[in-house]
Automatic annotation (TrEMBL), chain A:
InterPro entries: ABC_transp_permease, LivM-like. It holds the Pfam family BPD_transp_2. This is Branched-chain amino acid ABC transporter permease. GO terms for cellular component: plasma membrane. It comes from Agromyces agglutinans. The chain crosses the membrane at residues 27-45, 51-69, 104-125, 132-150, 179-199, 231-251, 257-274, 281-300, 306-330. It is a multi-pass membrane protein. It comes from the Bacteria. Its main location: membrane.
TrEMBL record, chain B:
Residues 44-383 form the Leucine-binding protein domain. The keyword Signal applies. It comes from Agromyces agglutinans. Keywords: Signal. It comes from the Bacteria. Gene3D superfamilies: 3.40.50.2300. Pfam families: Peripla_BP_6. InterPro entries: Leu-bd (IPR028081), Peripla_BP_I (IPR028082). This is ABC transporter substrate-binding protein. Coiled coil: none annotated. Belongs to the leucine-binding protein family. The keyword Repeat does not apply. Residues 1-25 form the signal peptide.
TrEMBL record, chain C:
PROSITE patterns: ABC_TRANSPORTER_2 (PS50893). The keyword Phosphoprotein does not apply. This is ATP-binding cassette domain-containing protein. It comes from the Bacteria. One of its GO terms (molecular function) is L-isoleucine transmembrane transporter activity. It comes from Agromyces agglutinans. Keywords: ATP-binding, Nucleotide-binding, Transport. Pfam families: ABC_tran, BCA_ABC_TP_C. Gene3D superfamilies: P-loop containing nucleotide triphosphate hydrolases.
């Protein structure tokens, strides 16, 4: 599923282009295939792999929330990792101390995320740009410090752990890991479907205008501050949701998991994956989850952390220089070229209309 | 739908499918996992070790080298009961999330019967190990690891840091009842445990400096100590903080009584950084040997240790006390395995809990591994004083169980 | 006020009263007071730096300004920019500003934001009224697109359009907002005489069909004299004169300050 483009039928029509139903878009069917494969995975790979894939899915929700913010509403947050962590803590503490059921705890995380988003977002949308970056970076830097400071409440370094798996399998034919993966996958798919629908139509157009410039947006009747605040809150809610799911998968929350670097890592993952693409969010999340252990298996020891950072930096640099739309964007471009080659093969066919995709024009 | 978008969709779908196949190729098939493979009599005994090899506590990595050397040496000698011990290792960068990830891999993928780690963050993995009924052993001394009632699968190798703190407190009340104490430690639960131990002996530091790992400049805190009239400084913090602070105190000519906690009193952690002069006269309640200390130059056990380190390719870490401690931990595990009834978590745990005057290559002469209490196996300390070249024994070995510190 | 102001219609669509603004102490507009008659084309002219674009930015609410502005008799000076757009003030920019990555159709469609009401929740749920409104918006956008003659390139990314088509697309976008006032900032810049005549004729036609009033800022005095029914002249932030083209052409103050060099062209 990619950034929403209203699909416009080609020339020569006397009436407005149709709103193409979702099931007629290629992205939809790609997504269906992807989900079908993802559903088959738990019956093929080990529980440990499922644990990692579940983590990817949870982080992907966090990265997607950042995509919504940076890629769609044109805001930047260097504190998304903190919001992710706050969601995790809210959910875990609700279970551990209040003994709320898992699903209620998820709702608690969502509520806390909304509150945090509103409190940060209110001044943030007025600031914008550099100042917003600074504000969010301060929050990200403060979060772990506060967790240590109020350790009676947060468990300090030991954090909060779950006494039993958050998503226990209801049936003997599935292990906890299989069940947990399927639950997390479902939540990810729902989140992406929600996001994809959210940035469509009139809202999507308003967002395009905001990204193009404030004056253009207000001149077309867009209440920029209001929409930005709405999206800041929605983004925080999803970050908190992703964080809660991540904590459930891991079975613990600790301050060490949410340093400032984690917030920056999420941002890099968003850029590298492609901040206008939901598939990109999953790719970025996969990097966040797999790169550190991959790096330490290639070069053990102190150098591994640097290797992971180096790979991250190089990929980020490549994205900035050659593929500004991230891996997902580069993939789309590649698909376009393949498609063009295929089309040229059908050489004798009637003359084809000029290429119409924006990727090609760029 | 026109054919452009259709072929685009086909390409995209194909790409997704390809990506999925690639991902699956990197995973382990379901059938090949789990502990089923463990049942055969000649199959290796798997132990997982998650250790900080990078990150804020990357400096403790030699501990893992020592552990590897001990296991390699045991395998060289024919293993345990004809079985090889397979040590699976992974870096956790001192990140609890990665620690838990590693533990899951060891348990679910490698079929490990025990998981070893450095400590501190290992409290994060206790719950999981409890759920999976897999034994966990940490090297570190944090007091929370003594809570074996809540976490019956978790053990720790070093004694509880609060016990040594009690010994320090007891010494202070006996020898310097009017001491004004300043404490320097990490900004984590190690400091809490230590202060709790001092408090149990009626000692409350007038000044506490709790700083993050890696801090080198404590001049502000030292000035504060001086201003508050501190005359006794207790240091329980790793490299480079302890060494740098002692060097600075020496530079400004301030000579209070200094207590170094045992695990941060070795040459690599302190003396090589500060130089021997600034440490001269410092006290420490010690339980392990330091391969860098000249007094062990002719020690047979240390010589064997050095050979084993070299044989396993870790000679560059051999002079680091942490490596010897990792080696000691490995030797303790091998000893427990050699006494176990069954090569599973339950059997290993039972054997680990029943040391009885067991010698260990890292321990000082006269100190032995004992029957487990509070999840710990070491209870004896030797008060030592640094004479400018070497740590020298002061008085007799003290046993915290006999002193009533541990009941 | 100049003598040329006689003949102003009774019910103006837009009334400016004492509109002023300063930037870092520099008076960009000072006490600008005039009415824009309902319907037809009104032009704002003046030399470079006279404050013409600044005036547009005040009317559309981009700048905070002094003075009162009334749209069809209702005060709008307290409304923020997006509310003024929703109230029926549309504009184009000196340099056509489009979403270059989006299709031309999409660029026109964004103009409908001003009068559509579906919020994020409606979009998300795809309610019946949201779908109805979306269909209507697309029909309006398509109709405006067709009117400016860009239907054949509806699916082309706006970034690939030639300059004249970018102007047309921008006008179509403004028209798609169903404006009561359309403000065009130098619509002829970069266009040939034929192209700009065609564009302004198109705007005038839309005005006749919908009752929309056009206000244009323009350098090309000849063009203004041909197309505008009413003219306001600015000089150094102050209103010099308002009136019908013939009156303006003969206004001595205007000739002295501005038309002097261009007088032959204008005649």
């Amino acid at each position: 599923m990619s950034a929403p483009v209203v699909h416009t039928e080609p020339t020569g029509r006397a009436t407005a282009p149709d709103i193409r139903p979702r099931y007629r878009t290629p992205g939809f069917w790609t997504a269906v295939v992807a989900v079908a494969i993802a559903v088959a995975v738990p019956f093929l790979v080990s529980d440990y792999d499922l644990f990692n894939l579940s983590r990817v899915a949870a982080v992907a929700i966090g990265v997607a929330s950042l995509n919504l913010l940076t890629g769609f509403s044109g805001q930047v947050s260097l504190g998304q990792g903190a919001t992710f962590g706050i969601g995790g803590y809210a959910a875990m503490m609700a279970i551990r101390y209040l003994e709320w059921p898992v699903w209620v705890a998820l709702l608690a995380a969502i509520a806390v995320g909304a509150l945090v988003g509103f409190v940060i977002g209110l001044p943030a949308v007025r600031m914008g740009g550099f100042n917003l970056g600074l504000l969010t970076i301060v929050i990200a830097a403060l979060f772990p410090v506060l967790l240590y400071r109020f350790s009676d409440f947060t468990g300090g370094q030991a954090g909060v752990t779950l006494a039993a798996p958050a998503f226990p399998s209801p049936t003997d034919s599935l292990t906890d890991a299989q069940w947990s993966y399927l639950v997390v996958l479902t939540l990810l798919v729902l989140t992406i479907a929600f996001l994809d629908q959210l940035v469509a139509r009139r809202t999507g157009r308003a967002l395009s205008l905001i990204r193009a410039g404030r004056i253009l947006a207000v001149s077309n009747g867009v209440d920029v501050e209001r929409l930005k605040l709405q999206f800041f809150v929605i983004s925080s809610v999803l970050a908190a949701l992703g964080g809660a799911i991540f904590a459930f998968v891991l079975g613990l929350v600790v301050p060490e998991s949410y340093p400032l670097v984690f917030s920056i890592t999420l941002l890099v993952a968003s850029v590298v994956g492609g901040s206008r693409s939901w598939i990109g969010a999953i790719l970025g999340a996969a990097m966040v989850v797999y790169l550190p252990s991959l790096a330490s298996s290639v070069i053990p020891g102190e150098a591994s952390a640097y290797l992971a950072q180096l790979v991250f930096a190089v990929v980020l640099g490549l994205c900035v220089i050659v593929a500004s739309s991230g891996i997902a964007g580069a993939g789309r471009r590649l698909a376009s070229s393949i498609e063009r080659v295929l089309r040229e093969r059908r050489a004798t066919a009637p003359p084809t209309p000029p290429s119409t995709t924006r990727e090609e024009i760029r | 739908m026109n054919h452009q978008t259709r072929s685009r969709g086909t390409v995209a779908t194909f790409a997704v499918a390809t990506a999925a196949v690639l991902v699956l190729a990197g995973c382990t098939p379901r059938a090949a996992t789990g502990s089923d493979a463990q049942s055969a009599d000649d199959s290796p005994i798997v132990i997982g070790a998650s250790w900080p090899q990078s990150g804020p506590l990357g400096s403790v990595a030699p501990g893992l080298a020592g552990l590897e050397a001990a296991i390699a040496a045991a395998n060289e000698d024919g293993g345990v009961d004809g079985r090889e011990i397979e040590l699976v290792t992974a870096d956790d960068a001192y990140d609890p999330a990665r620690l838990v990830e590693n533990e899951r891999k060891f348990v679910e993928q490698d079929g490990a019967i025990a998981v070893v780690n450095f400590g501190g963050i290992s409290i994060a993995g206790r719950e999981y190990l409890g759920q999976k009924q897999v034994m966990g052993v940490s090297m570190a001394g944090n007091s929370p690891l003594s809570d074996i009632e809540a976490f019956p699968m978790q053990r720790a190798f070093w004694p509880d840091v609060s016990w040594e703190a009690q010994l320090q407190g007891k010494w202070l009340t006996e020898h310097a009842p009017d001491a004004v104490v300043g404490y320097i430690g990490f900004n984590n639960d190690l400091t809490e445990s230590h202060l709790a131990g001092l408090a149990a002996q009626g000692v409350t530091p007038a000044q506490v400096a709790a700083v993050p790992p890696g801090t080198a400049d404590l001049s502000a805190q030292v000035s504060q100590f001086q201003a508050a009239g501190v005359d006794t400084v207790i240091i329980n913090i790793g490299a480079p903080t302890g060494g740098a602070t002692l060097a600075y105190m020496d530079q400004i000519g301030w000579k209070p009584t200094v207590f170094l906690s045992s695990t941060v009193s070795d040459f690599h952690t302190v003396i090589n950084i500060s130089g021997p002069g600034p440490v001269e006269g410092a006290y420490s309640f010690e339980f392990f040997k330091d391969p860098s200390d000249p007094r062990y130059a002719d020690d047979d056990v240390i010589a064997q240790y050095l050979d084993d380190m070299e044989a396993s390719g870790h000679e560059k870490d051999a002079t680091n006390a942490l490596a010897l401690e990792g080696y000691g931990l490995g030797a303790a595990l091998v000893d427990a395995l050699s006494r176990t009834d069954s090569f599973d978590s339950e059997g290993l745990l039972a054997a680990w809990d029943s040391f009885d005057g067991t010698e260990n290559p890292m321990l000082r002469d006269g100190i032995t591994l004992e029957e487990s209490s509070h999840g710990r196996v070491i209870f004896q300390y030797q008060l030592s004083r640094f004479d400018g070249a070497s740590w020298v024994d002061e008085g007799e070995i003290e046993d915290v169980r006999e002193l009533g510190i541990v009941e | 006020m100049s003598a040329a102001s006689s003949g102003s219609p009774a019910a103006p669509i837009l009334s400016l009263r004492g509109v002023g603004i300063s930037f870092r102490g520099v008076r960009a507009l000072d006490d600008v007071t005039f009415d824009v008659p309902r319907g037809g084309v009104t032009a704002v002219i003046g030399p470079n730096g006279a404050g013409k674009t600044t005036l547009f930015n005040c009317i559309s609410g981009i700048y905070r300004h002094e003075g009162d502005i009334a749209l069809a008799g209702a005060d709008i000076q307290h409304l923020r920019a997006h509310r003024r757009a929703a109230a029926g003030i549309a504009r184009t920019f000196q340099t056509p500003t489009l979403l270059d990555a989006e299709s031309v159709f999409e660029n026109v469609l964004v103009g409908t934001h001003a009068w559509t009401r579906t919020g994020p929740a409606g979009v998300l749920l795809g309610t019946r009224s949201a779908r109805r409104e979306e269909r209507e918006a697309r029909e309006v956008a398509w109709e405006r697109l067709t009117a400016v003659g860009l239907a054949p390139v509806a699916h082309v990314p706006a970034g690939a359009l030639p300059h004249a088509d970018r102007r047309r697309a921008e006008v179509a976008r403004a028209l798609a907002s169903r404006p009561r006032i359309l403000m065009l900032d130098e619509p002829a810049a970069g266009l040939s005489a034929a192209e700009s005549d065609e564009l302004l004729e198109l705007v005038a036609e839309q005005g006749r069909a919908t009752g929309m009033t056009s206000v244009l800022v323009e350098h090309d005095v000849a063009l203004v004299m041909r197309t505008a029914g009413w003219i306001a002249v600015l000089d150094a932030g102050r209103l010099l004169a308002t009136g019908a083209p013939d009156a303006i052409r003969q206004d001595p103050a205007v000739v002295a300050a501005y038309l002097g060099t261009d007088a032959e062209v204008a005649a």
